[in-house]
Amino acid sequence: MADFVDNPERESFVHVSGRISSMQGSASVFANLGQVQGINTQRLLWDLRFDPSEVLDEDIATLAARRFLRDADAQDNQHRLPIKLLHLNRAPVVVANAILKEGAIIERMQLDLDAVKKNTRTMAQFKREVADKLHAVLAEQMAFASQDAECALYEGFMPNVDRYALDDFNRVFDQAMAAGGSAQDEPVTEALRKLMAQSWQDARLPELVFRFVARLRPDLLNEDERTQWQSWVDSRLNAAPDQPYQDFSGLGFAGFFATIDALMADAAYRDEATLALLTQLKAWGET
Fold it and tell me: Quick one: residue 184, left, alpha or beta (phi over 0 = left, psi -120 to 50 = alpha)?
């Protein structure tokens, strides 16, 4: 997949996606503007139905505001920024432009082929400037470096050397469970200790492994690690509903009780059985 979309001789390609309007055949012609912020499974694309020179005179803040612009909020001659992220690890549908030789496909896509060709020439002329500016737009909106590890599971494949180490653990764990054992068994304990001592290449894995062990076998943590884990749990549970932890708006105590109170006040949930269940749930949260 990467070899296809990253081919320097390929100016553009057709991409089919459910995120593209069905009125356009759920497809369009895109130019690849390169890898996204060092994430080897993502590419930034420009929809060549649109003239890429439109971004050259716009500032970063204006372009960023247009990225998720709703049609209802658009002013005259304004449209959503025609970019898209291609996730190589999600089996995207990409096809060579040769398919555009079929008139039925062009008609289904409602494609102005002359405009696409013109925009392709413009992109070839200004590709570096356009790419630099649009990557800057993404950089303002996507702080992957500070993103919580558990929220970044799909932000890229892990290196093989890391995957092999995880596979080794999974084999030990699966064998123990299949034999009727538990996470307390000595082979699993040793495998967990090995995981914790592993030098990982993927920056997400030290934190992911730490949390996995803390949940499964907290007794294997040393005093400093237990303090670190408890601090993290407290920060998640006690965060205000309007102050999500590292962009993850998980349900803390305040949001948990506020949601139950809202449901109990809703006429749709005021039957006796539902109120009894919500009361029990609230009591559980207070214990």
Answer: alpha
The per-residue DSSP string of 177-204 comes to: HHTT--TTSHHHHHHHHHHHH---SSTT
For range 24-52, the mean pLDDT: 92
Cβ count within 10 A of residue 86:
20
Question: Across the beta sheet with 27-36, what order do the strands follow?
Answer: 83-87, 39-47, 27-36, 13-16, 93-95
pTM > 0.70: yes or no: no
CATH of 2-142, one of 1.10.150.240, 3.90.180.10, 3.30.390.50, 3.30.1520.20: 3.30.1520.20
Domain extents in the chain = 2-142, 152-240, 251-287
Q: Do the Cβ atoms of 195 and 211 come closer than 8 Å? A: no
Confidence label for 143 from pLDDT (cuts 50, 70 and 90): very low
Q: Are 265 and 257 in contact (CB under 8 A)?
A: no
Instruction: pLDDT band for 246, please (50, 70, 90 cuts).
Output: very low
Percentage of the chain exceeding pLDDT 70: 90
Check if the beta carbon of residue 120 is closer than 8 Å to that of residue 3: no
Mean pLDDT taken over the chain: 87
- Taking alpha carbons only, the member of 12, 134, 5 closest to residue 82 is 134
Alpha helix stretches (DSSP H) within 142-271 = 160-178, 186-197, 205-216, 223-237, 253-265
Q: What gap in Å lies between CA 139 and CA 39, rounded to an integer?
A: 12
